[in-house]
Amino acid sequence: MYETILVAYDGSEYSRAGLKEACAWIKRHGGTLFLMHVIYFNEEEFLLYPDIREKRFEQGKKLCDEAKAEITKHFGIQAQCILKEGDPSEAILHEAETLKAKLIVTGTYGKKGLLKRLVLGSVSTELALNSPIDVLVVKKPCEECKGDYNSILVPFDDSVASRLALKKAFRFYNEYGSSIHVCYILPRYQELIEFYITPSIKEKIIVEGKKILSSAENMAKEAKIPIELIMDEGSPAEKIVEIAERKKIDLLIIGPYGWKKGLDRKLIGSTTEKILHLINIPVLIAKEE
């Protein structure tokens, strides 16, 4: 499925977690691994410290060499290292296109993103939203990396993005036998626009939720793939994380554009962005079937 993988690497614990996940996948399923380190600094910084560019390239090369040695030692695989200068997300996306990569792997927060994560502006979020290919976002290093994802959760709202995510999950089932859980979270409209929900309105919301899940069920039946349907109520991101923990999910697959309702994005950012900051398991942002 992922013959060529590009890992965004800055030496942080988060990017090391992403690298470890990618190495486990390559060792299990084969493929080519590229390690990319981007040198980033602004013009003001360069004027104050004119020799900083050369030093950062030296540091970047050292980081990559150390990572390559560790990869060979622990996973027995080879990786190619790429050093580039510029905006991290833009450089990574450009290189992915050049390499014809099938997957970008990134830690939840790169160094550039540490100061920006409160406004959901990390490099990983930029990649997740702007990449034309799949992006795997990893926060926590796997304890026993095996390169397999046996239990997958797909948040579903019948949008184009969520249908794409479900089709990607079907590929994991067909190729690796992964079990698939599909959830829909009933929105609490009264928390957003402050009105009282009557029993009849509540029933209509539930009916709509069942209709949405039936669409996922029909997709699964057509593909002849078994799935488990889950409906819950609350804030989508928090509930998705809760379900993932309860079901012992080891991979979340989600579309790139957040929840179906635009109001949620205006108030708190897209569901995708919130999940990336809350969840500890890998999140695959599906861009291609």
TrEMBL record:
Domain UspA: 1-139, 149-287
Family: Belongs to the universal stress protein A family.
Any Pfam family the entry gives: Usp
Protein name as it appears in the record: UspA domain-containing protein
Organism from which the protein derives: Caldimicrobium thiodismutans
Coiled coil, from the record: none
